[in-house]
Each structure stands twice: as C-alpha cells, then as structure tokens.
Amino acid sequence: MKLFPRPPLKRALLALAALLALCAILAFAFPQQIFCVDSGNVQADSLVVLGGGSDDRPIRAAELFRSGAAPRILVSGAGDCEENKRLLVSEGVPPAAIELEREWRSTRQNAQFSIPLLRALGAKRVIIVTSWYHSRRALHAFEHYAPDLQFYSRPAYYGYQRTQWSREAIRGYVRAEYAKLLGYWVCYGIRPF
C-alpha cells in the first residue's frame, strides 16, 4: 500500500493551526507573563490611577505615593473617581496631592483626557497604576498618545492569584483583554507589544 504525501500547502496550514492552538493554550495558561508590565522601583512626577477595577488600584497608588514614587496622583474615572479619591485619602494621601479627571469612558480616553492634565502639572515622568491584566494595554495607550512623556507601569496585584480566578471573575477579564488588545491595535493603531 503506497502512502501519498500531503500537499505542501495542506501541511503548512496544519502546522500553522497547531502553532496557533499552542499559542492560545500558552496565552491562557500564562496571562500574567503576557499582560503584566511592571517597571519596578521608579521615580516620577505623577501617578495616574485608572478607573474601573475594584479598590486595588487606589490602594496600590497610595502605597506608591507613601513610598515616595511620585508627589501627585491624577485619578481618572467617570463615575468612580470620587470614590477612588476617598480611598486614597483614607490610605493617607493628602487631598491637595490629588487631581481628578472625570470624563473617561475607556482606556484610550483615560490617556487622551489625562495627558493634557499631566502636561499642565508639568509632569514628564508618569507612573500608570491599574490592574495587572490591564497594565500592558494602558501603558501602550498612554505612550501612543504622548510619546514625548516617559510612562511606567506599577500595577496592582491584590486578590488576583490564580486560585482566585473563578471567584474574582479574572478569567473573564483575561479573555476580554486579549480581544481588547487586538481591537486597540486594529482600531487605534496602539500596538500591544
């Protein structure tokens, strides 16, 4: 019985499909290595706390403020910026060190609306504070809209260990974040890597 070799195109397509399946498995098995960008200990002129998430973001920003990472905090978030400001104050941040940006509706708008305020404050070096799974997209959005400023990422990790994914619905955030990364690249030209 003679075996016929598969045509080269069919083999290439099968290999590509297998490679894509492997990439998808790895992407969902190791999302923190893909999404999380942490610049480490850096000094900046201002912190920007992005709205959304839970209280993990303002708590992380207060921690960074108390450690001397930056002397000011810009809180960005339609609907939750007042609550985030209250959390910051309860964590020891003086109200005079907090500015509010109340207009955003997306990560892209966080960047677009916060950048003029940061420039008005004279900020040249800025630390973005958001959840770990959101840090790559947020950092790249700010860099895209203000390439003249230096941005860093110091994400919040609270309550997001793999053992808590189901209870905290992080699995859904991870799936959505892959779609959002692709969408921001295609729709706005914000490269994910």
Give a quick summary of the entry.
This protein has helices at 8-29, 31-35, 56-66, 81-90, 107-120, 135-145, 165-168, 170-188; strands spanning 46-50, 73-76, 98-101, 125-129, 150-153. It is of the alpha/beta class and 193 residues long. Helix 3 crosses helix 4 (81-90) and helix 5 (107-120) packs across helix 6 (135-145).
Provide key terms for this protein:
193 residues; alpha/beta; 8 helices; single chain; five-stranded parallel sheet; 5 strands; Rossmann fold
Task: Describe the fold and architecture.
The protein is an alpha/beta fold. The protein has a single domain, classed as Rossmann fold (3-Layer(aba) Sandwich). 50% of the residues lie in helices and 11% in strands. It contains 8 helices and 5 strands; from the N terminus they run ααβαβαβαβαβαα. The chain has helices spanning 8-29, 31-35, 56-66, 81-90, 107-120, 135-145, 165-168, 170-188; strands at 46-50, 73-76, 98-101, 125-129, 150-153. Strands 3-2-1-4-5 form a 5-stranded parallel β-sheet, with helices on both faces. Strand 2, helix 4 and strand 3 form a beta-alpha-beta unit. Helix 3 (56-66) packs across helix 4 (81-90) and helix 5 crosses helix 6. The chain is elongated, with a radius of gyration of 20 Å.
